[in-house]
Design goal:
The chain has about 180 residues and is an alpha/beta fold. It contains three helices and ten strands. It has a six-stranded mixed beta sheet with strand order 5-4-3-6-7-8, sandwiched between helices. The protein has a four-stranded antiparallel beta sheet with strand order 1-2-10-9, with no helix packed on it. The chain binds inosinic acid and magnesium ion.
Length: about 180
């Protein structure tokens, strides 16, 4: 069932992932992260802007001591398709050398954004580097970038809400919805 939110855009009436499902999934991801890190301090690197709500909930759900920094990447391309050319719009403020880095992403789609971020971070010699994404679009992957923690997997379709945008809109929806006709 599709409902019209703006004249030009149609979002699914029912959420693909409800706020409650997201909260429950984050609880179990956090438990998995706590087991894996054994209390070692984590440096979460949130990739702006899409992961701002996810990282806010994840950092409150883990019990492992955690520090946080932010990176802002821009990928050239259309609103819905990454081109693979990545620009660092805002770099980290902290050194990641010898830190246990956990990259927190909104969506891994082609994997091009993450692949280029991963090699940039590995050059800075962290003690370890893992990747956590809220959404995995496995069928769209064109790189073999390893993803260690996955919130939800979907095949395709463009989604918005809970931080995810379409041309900067809909980030504030508390749940995740499918955009029709993209
Ligand atoms: P990739 O480089 O193709 O993996 O692109 C990943 C980035 O594209 C994500 O971090 C998102 O910012 C954006 N993206 C990909 N699919 C979607 C979607 O369905 N909704 C919103 N943003 C998306
Ligand atoms: Mg985005």
């Amino acid at each position: 069932m599709i409902t019209s939110i703006t004249p030009n855009l149609k979002l699914s009436k029912e959420p693909l992932f409800s706020a409650q499902e997201i909260a429950e999934r984050i609880k179990s991801l956090a438990a998995q992260i706590d087991r894996d890190y054994h209390g070692q301090e984590i440096l979460m690197i949130a990739v702006l802007k899409g992961s701002f709500l996810f990282v806010a909930d994840l950092i409150r759900a883990v019990r492992t001591p955690t520090i946080i920094d932010f990176v802002r990447l821009a990928s050239y391309g259309s609103a819905t398709q990454s081109s693979g050319i990545i620009e660092v719009r805002k770099d980290l403020e902290m050194s990641i050398k010898d830190k246990h880095v956990l990259v927190v992403e909104d969506i891994v789609d082609s994997g091009l954004t993450l692949e280029s971020l991963r090699s940039m971070l590995l050059n800075r010699k962290p003690a370890s580097l893992k990747i956590c994404t809220l959404i995995n679009k496995q069928s769209q992957r064109i790189t073999d970038v390893p993803v260690d923690y996955i919130g939800f997997s979907i095949d395709d379709g463009f989604i918005v809400g809970y931080g995810l945008d379409l041309d900067e809109r809909y980030r504030g929806l508390p749940d995740i919805r499918i955009v029709a006709g993209v």
